[in-house]
Design goal:
- By secondary structure, the chain is mostly beta strands.
- The chain folds into six domains: about 130 residues, Immunoglobulins (Immunoglobulin-like), CATH 2.60.40; about 100 residues, Immunoglobulins (Immunoglobulin-like); about 100 residues, Immunoglobulin-like (Sandwich), CATH 2.60.40.10; about 100 residues, Sandwich (Immunoglobulin-like), CATH 2.60.40; about 100 residues, Immunoglobulins (Immunoglobulin-like, Sandwich), CATH 2.60.40.10; about 90 residues, Immunoglobulin-like (Sandwich), CATH 2.60.40.
- About 5% of the residues lie in helices and about 50% in strands.
- It has one helix and 59 strands.
- The strands form eleven sheets. Strands 40, 41, 42, 43, 44, 45, 46, 47, 48 and 49 form a ten-stranded mixed sheet that branches. Strands 1, 2, 5, 9 and 10 form a five-stranded mixed sheet that branches.
- A hairpin with a 5-residue loop joins strand 42 and strand 43.
- The N terminus is likely disordered.
């Protein structure tokens, strides 16, 4: 039976409208009075009173609940008296909500709200007695009742949930404990609803055959209406489908000589994936016996993944990628039984780090991808620790190297560089172990780094100064390939010490600094002519004398083309003795040039430009007849007159 709200007419109706207006105004004062009270300051004690009615009549024995509006926690419950009034005292929070529950009536919150989340909030101050400005009106409950089936048979232990059809929020739920798997959910207000059910071993289902909330049928209920399941036509018909199960066991194999394993493996995460999308449908973890069971699965094609830290992620058919994983079909009720799967530990490497055949502590050992050269994993050993173990590595080709302070980097089996390092193949479940016989393998023996040390002196004849020179960059070159090996700078006393060198090497040493002529040990001015020094089988080569660098010598002047300054001309300085080209520069927009860093004292100077005959200072036409200029270290030579070119 439907219950309608009572109507009045005439003067009484006009008075009712007037009363409602007053009540609404009072409610606004109560709701918006927050400005008069702090949002965080709780009152010492406050009281809330009010009335509950239905159809214009007082409602007795209704349960009135007060809730903390900030946490939605229930503060207390009181009961309406014979005249429908209630009083709740001892309230110590500043913001409250008020709700009413009574059998046969829709659960209601002040005013005309039907969820705690949407309920109006009332502010309280210290010692305040708040009387709700109008009665909380109840309406007859809407009810949903029916039966939960599974494959057309009653299913016990199901949970039925009613959802708000517009928001998807769960409104109420109840077990199907009545009679033959039947349920009844009352206390509902008028509204639009969807109904679904869950039960252990069954897939979630919704009324009228829908499989998810989005596609579920919407039922519209009025106050006082009862929606009952019926068969012809089908209304509110819930028939669940049995959930599929994937089960089996996992065996782990690890051939590590220290941490080996060949037993059932617990703690493995088993994930059932949608075969098409890879989305996770369900998971489980193996127990100590390696057993697992993943339930709640819908019928369909799946892939099954097994993963655990330190072990190779493996799929049910023994593959290691989702793309190559086997596809299996899950049947409802019967499930999928995979039996025992063997998974292998991630490969590892273990061995020792030696230094000239003795144990070497404090080294850093790194494993590299042999194809890309990228570092995969590394470990730094303690000062007195020389044995290493690096696990969690991928299957495939690798290289292994080590570094240590005071020692040159080295790679397994006596290789000096990553490029030349030996390649090892890692296999599932296996640990690559250093061996000594019948052949050495994964043998790392570092050699101590060698040093070269000495002093750099500077000479500036113009300033009449010579002595140790700081801030000089000293570079060591391989004497055979002329490739730089290492570099450093001189200190305040002109001293340098450069490490990272391989003893037994032959080297050349260069000294350079801006404003000074680059020199090589000793008194050489090109890498090709530099002296060579064997480090030999010693850890430090002390240079027998200082490397001398000289303050730059500079030549400057101007070039004319006939009678005007000539821009863009090339000015070349030659060694006056050998005729070798020393340095070159270009004239600026005004024809001026400046060439610095000259390594010899006697020079000849030429100027040239396309379209002009090459000329030499001064008015000479060949290098052989050109004037010779003598420059002191640190001196700037300024030509006394322009160099003139002719067409």
């Amino acid at each position: 039976m439907n219950t309608a709200r009572p109507l009045r007419s005439g003067k009484g109706n006009r008075l009712s409208i007037f009363a409602v207006c007053i009540a609404v105004g009072a409610t606004s004062v109560a709701l918006l009075g927050a400005s008069a009270a702090s949002a965080t300051a709780a009152p010492a004690s406050a009281t809330v009173t009010g009335m509950v009615s239905a159809g214009g009549h007082a409602v007795s024995s209704a349960a009135v609940g007060l809730y903390n509006a900030d946490t939605n926690a229930k503060l207390g419950t009181t009961t309406t008296g014979a005249n429908g009034t209630f009083t709740e005292t001892g309230i110590t929070v500043p913001r409250v909500k008020v709700g009413v529950v009574k059998a046969g009536w829709a659960t209601t919150y002040a005013f005309d709200k039907y969820t705690l989340a949407s309920a109006n909030v009332f502010w309280l101050t210290t010692g305040q007695k708040l009387t709700l400005p109008k009665a909380i009106t109840l309406y007859p409950e809407a009810v949903i009742e029916g039966q939960v089936l599974g494959w057309m048979d009653p299913v016990s232990n199901a949970k039925v949930t009613v959802y708000n059809a517009d928001t998807g929020a769960a409104v109420a739920s109840a077990p199907n404990t009545y009679g033959d798997a039947e349920y009844r959910i009352g206390g509902l207000p008028a509204g639009r609803y969807k109904v679904g059910a869950t039960a252990p071993g069954w897939l979630p289902g919704f009324a009228n055959g829908a499989s998810n909330l989005a596609s579920a049928t919407v039922f519209t209920l009025r106050f006082g209406q009862t929606l009952r399941q019926q068969w012809d036509p089908e209304v509110l018909y819930i028939d669940l489908s049995p959930a599929g199960v994937v089960d089996g066991s996992v065996m782990g194999i690890d051939n590590d000589p220290v941490w080996g394993w060949d037993d059932p493996l617990g703690g493995v995460t088993v994930s059932v994936l949608n075969a098409s999308t890879g989305a996770v449908l369900g998971t489980a973890t193996t127990n100590s016996l390696g057993e697992y069971s993943v339930g709640g699965l819908a019928a369909g094609d799946v892939k099954v993944r097994f993963s655990k830290d330190g072990w190779l992620t493996t799929y049910a058919n023994g593959q290691y990628t989702l793309a190559t994983a086997g596809v299996y079909h899950v049947e409802p009720f019967y499930g999928l039984h995979l039996g025992e799967l063997v998974i292998y530990s991630q490969p590892a490497v273990m061995g020792q780090v030696l230094g000239t055949f003795d144990p070497l502590g404090g080294a850093t050992v790194t494993v590299y991808d042999a194809n890309t050269g990228k570092a995969l994993k590394s470990v730094t050993l303690d000062t007195y620790q020389y044995e290493y173990h690096i696990g969690g590595l991928p299957v495939g080709p690798i290289k292994v190297g080590a570094t240590a302070p005071g020692w040159l980097p080295g790679f397994a089996d006596f290789e000096p560089t990553l490029a030349s390092a030996r390649v090892f193949a890692l296999e599932p479940g296996n640990t690559l172990v250093q061996t000594w016989s019948p052949t050495m393998s994964l043998y790392i023996d570092l050699v101590p780094e060698a040093f070269v040390s000495g002093t750099v002196n500077g000479v500036n004849q113009v300033a009449h100064w010579s002595g140790p020179l700081s801030g000089v960059t000293v570079t060591v070159f391989d004497a055979t390939t002329n490739k730089p090996l290492a570099s450093g700078q001189t200190d305040a006393k002109g001293k340098y010490r450069i490490g990272g060198l391989n003893y037994g090497a032959t080297i050349k040493v260069q000294a350079s600094k801006p404003g000074w002529t680059t020199s090589y040990a000793f008194d050489k001015f090109s890498l090709a002519t530099a002296n060579t020094f064997p480090i030999g089988y010693q850890t430090e080569l002390v240079m027998p004398k200082a490397i001398t660098v000289y303050a730059d010598m500079t030549a400057q002047g101007q070039v004319y083309g006939l009678t005007s300054p000539l821009a863009g001309a090339t000015v070349t300085v030659y060694d006056a003795t050998t005729g070798a080209k020393l340095k070159a520069g270009t004239t600026d927009a005004t024809g001026h040039f400046k060439v610095s860093g000259l390594p010899t004292k006697s020079v000849k100077i030429a100027a040239s430009k396309t379209g002009w005959a090459t000329g030499y200072a001064f008015d000479k036409n060949t290098l052989a007849t050109a004037n010779v200029f003598t420059v002191a270290w640190g001196q700037t030579l300024t030509l006394p007159k322009p160099m003139v070119l002719h067409h």
